[in-house]
């Protein structure tokens, strides 16, 4: 979800669900050690609970960045061992790390030793054509011994050779049963599942086997789905929130961000283009909010156009 779940996206998602744990996009240790820490770690207070997801493979660097995350007030540090992109392969982290479970254990221990907040790991069920259950079982066993108690498992092998990251979203097939077996073998650990989850029925089914569900792309493309989650999964009252309420609040947020940080409203609006997913008129509404010719207008005027007549010529 790099370049997707930035702080603006998370602000939108927090409007829709008050209780769901949100994750940052993956931030590399190099970006924090050699780059602009504030730009990478700044977030909105409303986002809590929010986890900082790190990418890296050097225990000392990860410990330093985990400490930064705790100092900035994040609620959890998550190590990404699941991303298959060429960028992370060149950096020898992400899904590559599953081939080095002891290194991951060393990374986890280095972070656990310097922070008081939870350190968790997100990973795949295998690498390339290796579909042996023992591979992922031993990975979890080794990393858990270093102090990790929470594993978010993407139920599909990561292909580092022969498939693009885009193709790897659909191929090879998801194998939820592998994640269920992990929970049976490690009942004392918190095991959550990720991958291809798009409906409440599937969420309910998975929660019958596991401790949690992570939703990525469907939550981004169809964010209104989140508006039901607090009532369905956290015992909260049914929300009276409307899509218009959310849009208006996001417009207020755009104005604040422009005044405080010079953020163009289009950098924020791109995250809410799925807000009216499946509704009549949603295509024209998206066209207005994504029309580059309107970028010079204040966001409240763009919102008015989005709810008015045809898109301006």
UniProtKB/TrEMBL annotation:
The keyword NADP applies. It catalyses: 5,6-dihydrouridine(20) in tRNA + NADP(+) = uridine(20) in tRNA + NADPH + H(+); 5,6-dihydrouridine(20a) in tRNA + NADP(+) = uridine(20a) in tRNA + NADPH + H(+); 5,6-dihydrouridine(20a) in tRNA + NAD(+) = uridine(20a) in tRNA + NADH + H(+); 5,6-dihydrouridine(20) in tRNA + NAD(+) = uridine(20) in tRNA + NADH + H(+). The active site is at residue 83. Its cofactor is FMN. One of its GO terms (molecular function) is tRNA-dihydrouridine20a synthase activity. The record marks 80, 166, 169, 283, 286 as: Interacts with tRNA. It comes from Acidovorax delafieldii 2AN. InterPro entries: Aldolase_TIM (IPR013785), DUS-like_FMN-bd (IPR035587), DUS_fam (IPR001269), DusA (IPR004653), tRNA_hU_synthase_CS (IPR018517). Its EC number is 1.3.1.91. Transmembrane segments: none annotated. FMN binds at residues 53, 122, 154, 194-196, 216-217. Catalyzes the synthesis of 5,6-dihydrouridine (D), a modified base found in the D-loop of most tRNAs, via the reduction of the C5-C6 double bond in target uridines. Specifically modifies U20 and U20a in tRNAs. Belongs to the Dus family. DusA subfamily. Belongs to the dus family. Residues 1-292 form the DUS-like FMN-binding domain. The lineage of its organism: Bacteria, Pseudomonadati, Pseudomonadota, Betaproteobacteria, Burkholderiales. The keyword RNA-binding applies. Keywords: Flavoprotein, FMN, NADP, Nucleotide-binding, Oxidoreductase, RNA-binding, tRNA processing, tRNA-binding. This is tRNA-dihydrouridine(20/20a) synthase.
